[in-house]
Amino acid sequence: MATTKEEKARLIYTPNVLHNSSLYTVKFLSSCFAGATAGILGLENWSGFALFLASILFSTGCMYVINCKSRPTNYVAGGVKDLVNPGQDNVFSFVLVWTLFYGIVHVYD
Q1: Which end of the chain is more exposed for a tag (fewer CB within 10 A), N or C?
Q2: What's the pTM value of the predicted model, to 2 decimals?
Q3: Is the Cβ–Cβ distance between 76 and 19 less than 8 Å?
Q4: How many domains is the chain partitioned into structurally?
Q5: What is the pLDDT along the chain (109 residues), one digit of tens a residue?
Q6: Which one, of 14, 2, 20, lies nearest residue 76 by Cα?
Q7: CA distance 106 to 109
């Protein structure tokens, strides 16, 4: 059986895991909405990726000010670096939604 000292010493702390999960969800939704916007606007090549970069920076700024209260090292282990990092799966989600909406809106014009 684990004692209270051992429970406190655990590396995985449930409230932190829940907080980081909500940050991941915000990043995922931001990349999906940016992909939909890029597809609807008909952006191609680097302009679409520039929109993705702008959306990542905007969502990071919002999380930095609102969620982390301008002190990300207290909430995220890697600090600002982990907040800005979109993650490989979010880039793929962006491209998938971008091509989906581009195909729906602009292919048959």
Answers
A1: N
A2: 0.79
A3: no
A4: 1
A5: 556 666 665 666 777 777 777 888 888 999 999 999 999 999 999 999 999 999 999 998 998 888 888 888 877 777 788 888 888 889 999 999 999 999 999 987 6
A6: 20
A7: 5
